[in-house]
Amino acid sequence: MVFYGRAQQSSIAARLDAQLLYAKTHIADRLEEALKRILFENCKFLFKTPTKTGITTGESVLTEGRTILAVGKREELAKQYPDLNQAEVIDCSQKLVMPGLVDGHNHLCNTHMNCCRAFPFDYGKISEHMLTTIHDPYGWLTEESIYDITMASIINDVKQGATTIENSTILPDTAFRAMSDAKIRGILAPQMATGFRLDADNLNMRQSLDKTKACLENYHDPNGKMQVVVHIHDLWDTAEKMTLEAMNLAERYNTKLVCHFWEFANSKDQSEALWAEDGGALAHYMKLGILNKRSVLFHGSMLDDREIEILAGTGASIIHNPDINGTNCGNCAYIPKMLAEGINVGLGCDYGSLDVKTSMKLMLLVHAIMPRELRKIEYWQPFEAATMGSARAYGLEKQIGSLEAGKRADIITFDLRKASQLLPMCTQLIGLQTELLYFLFTRNCAGLETCDTMIDGNFVRRNGAFTEIDEEKFIQKAADWCGQSLTDIAARRAQNKHYSRIMHPDFVKDEDIPDSALE
Ligand SMILES: [Zn+2]
User: To pair with 362 at 20 to 30 A between CA atoms, which of 219, 379, 384, 427?
Assistant: First the structure.
């Protein structure tokens, strides 16, 4: 038994009292936060669900903590919730309110890569182009620079309407920290490949798989704000034994396998030649068992009619990135055909300095001018791809992607008093030709910043500004890193050196990859 003197006893009692008070206040605060109600009242335009008639006027959205409690006319909500007048009210009579956008594919750490277009490269020679424009800038990154660049990319995407962002990245622990600090909903995809190794992320095959496994153990929380997926960079720069282990990992943790897929004409041609005896590359991948409901494929821009029909039978999702299709690869995924075949299509932007709302505009535009049998898409389809399409790709369709009771409170608003580009949108169109509102919004939305951004019930932006993030600081830091990376990479190139190294050639079969390349 331990005996305490009187003074010691009173000091222990005081400490216990203080701890109890802290716990009570802390729990009370958390409880209050969890039950806090916010009413987005009387929305001039409410984009509720991505369907032909999914837009209403004069309705309100009531949230409680991280959840959408109800959507409807204020009078109806007041009957259902007699204490409605205690909710914090956001007047939306001059606002457009919609679900937060889901960026189905991005690399939040690649903003500085664009600078490397300054060096000569050829998109027709895939390995050379990768080394120049992707591996070197990735290999140059440090924990500090990747954090700042990731934050600046989040700022860019969120400002334009994203609330969920898929982030294919190296140094996933730091990327996770930035995504958590920014309080976004995230899909974290630690990049794995065997064909090259980066100075910044110098992992062999086993270490890469272990790193992804550790991320799944530490960060994967599908009911929270972070989902971890298993990410093979591409099929032509990764040993198939790694791709198969990646699929096993995705199955074991019940998550998705994500991969760049037939982004370049050159990568399709070389893959076809490699797997000719299997009846072509697609047939080979089908046989391998890596195309199924668990697969999320970025781009798919080289898939032809027949291949799209085959892919439709697998249940795999495609994430469309119209800007990068055009500006990097000089092509365009055949999205009208994919939609007609019933493939789930999500939308992404692929670069930290692009944004998913602008991708909506580009999706509307490019398929109207592509000289193909199936042209045009319906007016609401870019919005559907940027909400439910991307959400469905990651199995998040029950949580996000529309404004419905029971879903997570991921909500964005646009202030119509400041949106001169949205002027033609009038409420008289509702019921007359509601879908025209999707057209007017999508055609004119580029560059429009959100007024409010709520993610999981928490305001990340309010009245046109970030609530916690120091926007200017991170833009300045990322700008400095962009300049510095170019100086450093140019200096290394002048010595014929790089920030990455090739471990084995691309487009080879496993039997032609020496063990030493994987160790
Ligand atoms: Zn990408």
Answer: 427
